[in-house]
Specification:
Elements (H helix, E strand, L loop, with lengths): L9 H19 L18 E6 L2 E6 L5 E3 L2 H9 L7 E4 L20 E4 L6 H6 L4 E4 L5 H8 L4 E3 L8 H11 L3 H25 L4 E8 L2 E4 L4 H8 L3 E2 L8 E4 L11 E6 L18 H4 L2 H4 L3 E5 L7 H15 L2
Parallel strand pairs: 3-6, 4-5, 6-7, 8-10, 8-12, 12-13
Antiparallel strand pairs: 1-2, 8-9, 9-11
Helix pairs in contact: 5-6, 6-10, 7-10
Family: Belongs to the bacterial solute-binding protein 8 family.
Subcellular location: Cell envelope
Protein name: ABC transporter substrate-binding protein
C-alpha cells in the first residue's frame, strides 16, 4: 500500500469537519455517560480501556456502528461480528464497491465511499461511527484526526509483519476472541486439507509472488501470498528472500525455476483480470519461461494481498484452485 497522507483541505478540517464534530458530540455525549463500572457496582461497563500500539484507548464495550478506516479493517470487523456503520470506506484505483470475497450478507445495505488514497474525513464523520478501527497507523496523524470523530483503535497493519498478530490483538481489545478463534480454526482446517491433497498428489511446486512495476519485474513476499505459501509448506523461490528482487526485463531469465507464479491486480467490472504481464509480451526470454509456456500464471484480486481474514482465506482458495485443479 502506498503510504499516502490525507489531502483533505485545511478549510474542510477547520470548518466542515469541526461543525460536524460539534453535532456528533452533542449526539453522543448523553449516550456515553456510563464508563467502567465501579468495584462492586451492578451496572455494566459501557466502555473498556485497552492497550494499543499507540498507548491506551477507551472503546465502547458494545459498539453498534463500527467503521473500518481501510477495507482490511472493515473485514476484521465483519469477521469479529461487530455491528457496522451504514457507510464504509473502499479504495479507489479501479474499485467501485467492496471486494467480492468479503461477506456480502454482512455488507447488505451498507454504502461504500472512496477513502483511499485520499482520505474523506467528512464521509467518515457522516457515517456516525461509535468506533473506528484504523490499520493505517504508519501515519499517527490519521489516528489523531479519527479520535476527534469517535473512539479509535489504531495499529500499523502495513509494516510487513504478519497481520494476524494485529488481528488477534484487536479481537482481544474488542472482547471478540471467540470469533477470532473460530476464523483461525476454519482457516487452519482448510490449510491442512490442501496440504494433505498436495501430498497425496505428490505435488511440491516452487512458487513465487511476481509482478510488473513500470519497466521492472518484482518478486517479493509482501502481504498474504507468502504467508499462505508458508502455511502450506510450499517451496518459495529464493528471489523472495529478504527485501525480494527487482529485475530488469533483460534479467527475467532469473525467474527460471519457478513452477507457478501468483500475481495480483484490480479486477475489471465483470470480475475478470487483464494481462498483468502485458509489458513482457514481446520479451523472448519471458515467453520461454516454463510457467509462461505451461500457463502457470495465476491472477487474483489486489485487495487479497493486504492482510485480512477474508483476503487470506480467499487467496488460500486461489492457491488451491491453481495447484489442485
Amino acid at each position: 500500500m502506498t503510504r499516502t497522507t490525507t489531502r483533505t483541505s485545511a478549510a474542510l478540517a477547520a470548518a466542515g469537519v469541526a461543525a460536524l464534530l460539534l453535532g456528533a458530540c452533542s449526539t453522543t455525549s448523553d449516550a456515553s455517560t456510563g464508563t467502567d463500572a465501579a468495584p462492586g457496582s451492578s451496572a455494566e461497563a459501557t466502555t473498556r480501556t485497552v492497550e494499543s500500539e499507540f498507548g491506551e484507548v477507551t472503546l465502547p464495550t458494545e459498539p453498534q456502528a463500527a467503521l473500518g478506516m481501510y477495507t482490511t479493517d472493515l473485514d476484521m470487523l465483519i469477521t469479529l461480528g461487530v455491528p457496522l456503520a451504514q457507510s464504509q470506506p473502499i479504495r479507489d484505483d479501479g474499485y467501485s464497491t467492496f471486494p467480492s470475497f468479503f461477506d456480502q450478507e454482512a455488507l447488505e445495505g451498507i454504502t461504500p465511499f472512496t477513502n483511499f488514497p485520499e482520505f474523506s474525513y467528512e464521509s467518515i464523520l457522516a457515517a456516525q461511527p461509535d468506533l473506528i478501527v484504523n490499520g493505517l497507523g504508519y501515519d499517527e496523524s490519521i489516528g489523531t484526526k479519527l479520535a476527534e470523530i469517535a473512539p479509535t483503535y489504531s495499529f500499523n497493519g502495513f509494516d510487513g509483519s504478519d497481520w494476524r498478530v494485529k488481528f488477534e490483538a484487536l479481537a482481544e481489545a474488542l472482547g471478540r476472541t471467540a470469533e477470532h478463534d473460530a476464523w483461525t480454526e476454519r482457516y487452519q482446517a482448510k490449510v491442512d486439507d490442501i496440504r494433505a491433497r498436495l501430498d497425496e498428489a505428490g505435488l511440491d511446486p516452487v512458487v513465487g509472488s511476481v509482478g510488473v512495476d513500470g519497466d521492472q519485474v518484482t518478486v517479493s513476499c509482501y502481504g498474504t501470498p507468502c504467508l499462505v505459501f508458508d502455511d502450506l509448506g510450499l517451496d518459495i523461490t529464493p528471489l523472495s528472500d529478504g527485501e525480494g528482487a527487482t529485475l530488469s526485463f533483460e534479467e527475467v531469465g532469473q525467474l527460471d525455476g519457478i513452477d507457478a507464479v501468483f500475481t495480483s491486480m484490480a479486477p475489471e467490472d465483470d470480475g475478470s483480470f487483464g494481462d498483468a504481464f502485458e509489458a513482457l509480451a514481446g520479451n523472448a526470454v519471458w515467453q520461454q519461461l516454463p510457467f509462461v509456456t505451461q500457463g502457470q500464471i495465476f491472477t487474483s484480486d489486489l485487495e487479497m494481498i493486504y492482510g485480512s481474514p477474508s483476503g487470506q482465506y480467499a487467496f488460500l482458495e486461489e492457491v488451491e484452485k491453481a495447484l489442485l485443479p
